[in-house]
Write a structure and sequence with these properties.
InterPro entries: Yif1_fam (IPR005578)
Family: Belongs to the YIF1 family.
Distance between the termini: 35 Å
Number of helices: 5
Oligomer: single chain
Number of domains: 1
Helix content: over 70%
Subcellular location: Endoplasmic reticulum membrane; Golgi apparatus membrane
Radius of gyration: 16 Å
Number of strands: 0
Main location: endoplasmic reticulum
Order of helices and strands: HHHHH
GO cellular component, one term: Golgi membrane
């Protein structure tokens, strides 16, 4: 769902800026899928090297939240062009807090 929303919003933003074409939408979808694949492979590799017992499907599920953050950024950038900086900082903090909570649950390192 988050990936589909990202592709639709990217197409909408391209249409507003006058750069929409089916090829451009295909490029957005391809870049999103390649980014997702790279993210999952990187996280799986880092968890394997770190001797973590995080299941692969959890990594894939948590990786989907990236597209939620990107979709929110696209909407806010459409509303106000300089909001990218404020929203990006807020999303980085939110994603960081999510990852901290996930690690605390999976590795039982509450302190």
């Amino acid at each position: 769902m988050a990936f589909g929303t990202y592709v639709v919003l990217a197409g909408f933003f391209l249409g507003i800026s006058g750069k929409f074409s089916p090829e451009a939408l295909g490029v957005q979808a391809t870049n999103g899928m390649l980014g997702r694949l790279f993210q999952v492979l990187l996280e799986a590799t880092l968890h394997t090297v770190g001797d973590g017992d995080v299941p692969l499907l959890d990594i894939v599920a948590y990786g989907g939240y990236t597209f939620v953050a990107v979709s929110i950024t696209i909407v806010w950038r459409t509303i106000w062009s300089y909001s990218l900086y404020v929203v990006a900082v807020w999303e980085c903090l939110s994603m960081g807090m999510l990852l901290v909570k996930i690690f605390q649950e999976n590795f039982d390192c509450r302190g």
